[in-house]
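Example record

The entry below shows one chain as it appears in the dataset: sequence first, then structure tokens.
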Amino acid sequence: MAADVYSPMTPEVQQTETEDGWTFTFAPYFWAAGISGDVAQFGLPAVEIDSSFSDILDHLDFGAMAIGEARYGRYSVFGDVMYSKISGSAGTPRGIVASSVEVSTETFAGLMGVGYSIVDDDTVRLDVVGGARVWSVDTDLSFSGGLLDGVSRSDGATWVDAMAGFRGNYSITPEIYLTGWGLIGAGAADLDWDVAAAVGYRFSDSISAVVGYRALTSGLN
């Protein structure tokens, strides 16, 4: 008989079950993420970017990601947060307006949702879910040398999107399982979607390792 899979998309699960039947899980995780798309800030025209994880890692100052879930029977409440700070600097061609420019960007995404299991047995769990995701992006520019020496500018945006979709787990064996989700929504953004698929291995009832792929997007006009 295959065992229950406790938490989706998390590489390290800490599970606690209370006497009244609530089950709580919490886990930090890490995605080796790249970024691509159109970016426009400070009133400038949008530019296309395409950066791999190795490009971002060179400028990553700090990153934190974690997911948590509280479950009672077929009902669940879950949250997923991601935060990163990226910075870098470069010299200007002639150094007249400024000799160098430093850029720092902070990005936060937080999802809070509720779910209900439409399928829940020893092998399969499929939840229909709904919630809201908050996005926040802040960018700072600092100039050194030249005519703009000491000048700094900031730009940012915060928006909220409603989300809905499915989360699921499938146990292949008591140790090996598949897990993933698909969410789509909109609000301040025209479209916000988040899909993920992974394979996991359970070492014990409280520790699992998961590897997979995730893609998510959101943006303002």
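Notes for this example: The two ends are 50 Å apart (CA to CA). The longest strand covers residues 100-120.
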